[in-house]
Amino acid sequence: MTKKKQMLVSAILGLSMVVGGCSQGNTNDKSSPSTANSIAIPELTYFRSEEEGEMTVKWNAVKDATGYELVYSTDEHFKDKMSEKTKDTSITIDDLKKGETYYLKLRADKNKKHSGYSHVKELTIHEHKYTANVSKKATCTKDGETTYKCSCGDTYTKGIPSIGHDYELIKTVDATCNKNGYKEYRCKNCGDTKREDIEKTSHSFSLTKTVNATCSKEGYKEYTCSNCGETKRETIAKLDHSYKLTKTVNSSCKGQGYQIYTCENCGKTQKKSLGKMDKHSFELVKTVKPTCEKEGYKEYKCTVCGYSYKDNIAKIDHEYKFYKEQKPTCKEEGYKLYKCATCDKTKKEILPKLDHEYELTKTVEATCEHEGYKEYTCKNCGDVIKKDIVDKTEHKYELTKTVKPTCAEEGYEEYTCSVCGKTYRKTLKKVDHNYEYVRTVDPTCQEEGYNEYKCSVCGDTYKDTIAKVDHKYEFVRNVEPTCQEEGYSEYKCTMCGETTKKDITEKVDHDFELTETVDATCAEEGHKTYTCKVCGETKTETIAKVDHKYELTNTVEATCDAEGYNEYTCSVCGDVKRETIKKLDHEYELTNTVEPTCQHEGYKEYTCKNCGDVVKRNVANKVDHNYILVKTVKPTCQAEGYSEYKCTMCGETTRKNITEKVDHDFELTETVNATCTKDGHKTYTCKVCGETKTEILPKLTHNYVLTNTVKATCDADGYKEYKCVICGDVKRETLKKLDHEYELTKTVEPTCQHEGYKEYKCKNCGDVVKRDVVDKVKHNYILVNTVKPTCQAEGYSEYKCTMCGDVIQKDFTKKVDHDYKLTDTVKATCEKDGMNTYTCTVCGHEKHETLPKLGHSYKLTKTVKATCTAAGYEEYTCANCGDSYKVDLPKIAHEYVLTDTVKATCEKDGYKTYTCKSCGDTYTEKTDKALGHDFTKFVNHKDSTCTEKGYDEYQCSRCEKTNKVELELVAHDFDMNVEVNRVPSTCSTQGYVEYKCKNCDARHREDLPIDSNAHNYTLVNSDLTYNYYTCSECGASYQEYNDKEYVIDLGNGQTTTVVGHYDIAMAQRIGELVNERRAKWGRNALNIVGYDTNLGNAALTRGAELAVKYDHTRPNGERAIISFQGSAGTLAENIAQGQRSAEEVFNDWVNSPSHDSAQTNDKYLNIGIAAFAQKIDDGYYKYSFVQLYSSLQSNI
């Protein structure tokens, strides 16, 4: 053991003796045995009675104790005492007397020896005392609850059964044949409502109208209920058509024939197809001869219908003739070319490559560096190949150099081939280190120690670790737990001074007392606040809100448009709730009858007696038109024929008996001849309508002749150039480039610096290539110099080539050792190593040798004794260097005696004060809890108002301190008969009414329901069809027809007006339908012009005029097409009236050949469309339609 270790052990033993000597009974308990000086006295850290008839006690652990004995009694002098023994540091004892005060003391045991007793503690055992409180009142549907609570916080509850509903009849609604009735009941206690349904009665229907069926439409019988006016219908099936044959078109090879049948009753037609004639009458009209590139054909045409077909004639074979040959070589195939005498097309015949003719031209012997072989060259093409390959010979290696290994580096043996000079090395492994012991560093409780070793050859070091030693802890102090922090015992290491906590005891519970109570109302919850007497922390218990006391304060009756309601107000807090009364049903009666026509439906109009709402019922379909024949139009090659009928009631027209268009009458009007680059054509034009058709004339073939020849060379292809004598087109035919023809022009022999070779040159183009390459020969080295080794560099031999002068180094010898001598010494100290320095006499290189440090030699030089307020210490100093360190001596324990006793008051606890004899330190021990105030003497009262709370004031019987108990505000007395402010409701915001309190300025507000109809609409946009409105408050929008008065010119200075609007969407749809039909016919799409153009404006004018006069002549007497021709270029006009949709008016125009011919005419480029809705009555409009066509490119 080192001197340092011996001194540390002595210091620790001395410290243990000092601590042990101070541990004898620091207590005022006279019962402590004489052996207590060897066992520490435990202290009670926790003693509580939180459960009825039970107590829990905890204490700090005593070092080396084997058990503990807790002594308790109801007598402070411990007569009739009881005891419990345990090895733990806590215990719980039950079956104690409730409400009784017990006295406690504790001692520790060790091997049948006892410590002195701890300070005596007193504890009152808890006994539950419950107070009852109704925490939740019972209602009609829910149970109530009574809560019982002890001052310790323990609670339990008991239920109060629900009281059940007490309903009374408040309303009866009788049943009708459309709707159930009901009886409504309300609970007298809570206002809950329920309903009992009364089933609806049956309808009483009678026949009120009969409409007979036709072959185009079903009829019906209509029945009306005499009670409610509801109607129902029974359908009468449509009649069968009565068809008769009215037209026959016979079949031909041109197409199928057909028969038209027409119904005698309604005019509806059916078409029946006849079989198509099978055979055409063909004649030969054209023959085209075949060539070797293109088939020919014969064309036949039917003399009846013009249908034609072609019979193909197969192409003729090519007539090939030889015109060129390329001979084969041993590298490339040859070929023969043949050309067709008719069309110049060529074909190629491949000639296979020739075989090589090789002869031996070179022999190379094998060495240890390369293989041996024989080289053969082709007589024809010069191609070279190698054969008869011989493997390389093995190297002849000899040992030429050795480097020995050390413990720091590997060594090696080097071997060299005597033939080629190639070398390789064989590695020699490093030898082991030669380690010697250097020093030992002892471990502490904070750092590991180690043994250090060093290699005597290379200076490498390593360490063997010695594990850290354990801390040596000694007791310092006990800290009692509080309601804010845990308790613990603190210990300190005698070596390093580190501290640690042990025997942790939990924080004690807060000592809460009730400090504030706020009662609950129907508007807000109440609460109780408790405050800890020790630390001031608070906790809160919520008191649930009480139920509202509602009374009926307002009733708004229901109407057909809005629900009503009953309004109830809480008499305590003014809270308002509403109970909805359902809307009434409408009561309609017949007020108007409109008969149907062929233009609009009939209907009956009913008005509600209560609110004036109007509905239309019993709607009758429009009646059929009554058409008569007014015109017959024959077919042309541009338009179908048809019969036109007009309705005698409304003037509407329709087309029937449609006949197909006749064929065009074509004649040849233009011929363009074909060339060898473009097809020609023939153009035929119809004599009647000007329509054209085209017949293609196929393009001719080229006629080429040779015009130029460029010969091929070794570097580039040649070509032949041909030109067409008809159109001048040029084409080229490639001539492949020639092969090189080489001959030997130069021979170069090999040396030790470059290869040998033969040089060949092409006869045709002068290109030069190198062949027959021979490898370089070896160097011829001789010894020219020898260098000896030193301690800094190896020795070697130097050789030089006699041919090229190249120099190399061989035969290396390793460096010799340094010649070292001691040149410097640095001595070791307590904490630092010393060093010897050695220097080589040859090269000056240095090496170092470490001298291990000496280590400290400590001795005790000073001692300061510990007291109960301050720790002491021992100081140790090194004899070599003067370094020092201290060993702490812990404080000794206090010796406390009772010095003061204070009794408890209303607000403060009673306590005893203990003072240390040695240092005067004090601590207090609570003896009695604060008594609390006894506020029983009434001294003052102030009444509450609706704005200020009153109070009752009481005085404490012990200390005369007063306490005010706050009283609740009384309710406001609002004058509900006088409105002080009213804000009406809008479509998005609730309005309200305000009432004022009779006693103060407080106001009560009652919300008014949102009025969904109270919009504030403003006009935001308009077009020819609609006016658009938006509500400035909620953003709701609606649109209505932009009906205006349009002035109509009647001529002679007279005018009239018509009221209505234009349907832009319907006009646009008509335009789309027209262009869809034109696309099916292969016609160009028409430009649907806007109303800002002359043509569009003319269409608007005509749409309004047709409402006054339905004719192609304007109300002022002018012909419409002629009138607008100058400004809009009008060529045609389609008009219609009475239709209700774009599809309906378009189909009527399609079924009229004269109207449809305008819709499909490919000469027209632009169309202006208008759909004018004339206002006849509110909600009823009569439509007039117009199409104006123009062929102008601009200014429409």
- Count the strands? 86
- Give the DSSP E fraction (strand runs of 2 or more residues): over 45%
Mean pLDDT: 84
Radius of gyration: 64 Å
Number of helices: 7
The biggest beta sheet is recorded as: 6 strands, mixed
Backbone shape: flat
Task: Please give the structural blueprint.
Layout: H1 3-21, E1 44-48, E2 55-59, E3 67-73, E4 82-86, E5 90-93, E6 101-110, E7 113-114, E8 121-124, E9 130-136, E10 144-150, E11 155-160, E12 167-173, E13 181-187, E14 193-198, E15 205-211, E16 219-225, E17 231-236, E18 243-249, E19 258-263, E20 269-273, E21 282-288, E22 296-302, E23 308-313, E24 320-326, E25 334-340, E26 346-351, E27 358-364, E28 372-378, E29 384-390, E30 397-403, E31 411-417, E32 423-428, E33 435-441, E34 449-455, E35 461-466, E36 473-479, E37 487-493, E38 499-505, E39 512-518, E40 526-532, E41 538-543, E42 550-556, E43 564-570, E44 576-581, E45 588-594, E46 602-608, E47 614-620, E48 627-633, E49 641-647, E50 653-659, E51 666-672, E52 680-686, E53 692-697, E54 704-710, E55 718-724, E56 730-735, E57 742-748, E58 756-762, E59 768-774, E60 781-787, E61 795-801, E62 807-813, E63 820-826, E64 834-840, E65 846-851, E66 858-864, E67 872-878, E68 884-889, E69 896-902, E70 910-916, E71 922-928, E72 935-942, E73 951-956, E74 962-966, E75 981-983, E76 992-996, E77 1003-1007, E78 1017-1022, E79 1026-1031, ...
Parallel strand pairs: 83-85
Antiparallel strand pairs: 1-2, 2-5, 3-4, 3-6, 6-7, 6-8, 9-10, 10-11, 12-13, 13-14, 15-16, 16-17, 18-19, 19-20, 21-22, 22-23, 24-25, 25-26, 27-28, 28-29, 30-31, 31-32, 33-34, 34-35, 36-37, 37-38, 39-40, 40-41, 42-43, 43-44, 45-46, 46-47, 48-49, 49-50, 51-52, 52-53, 54-55, 55-56, 57-58, 58-59, ...
Helix pairs in contact: 2-6
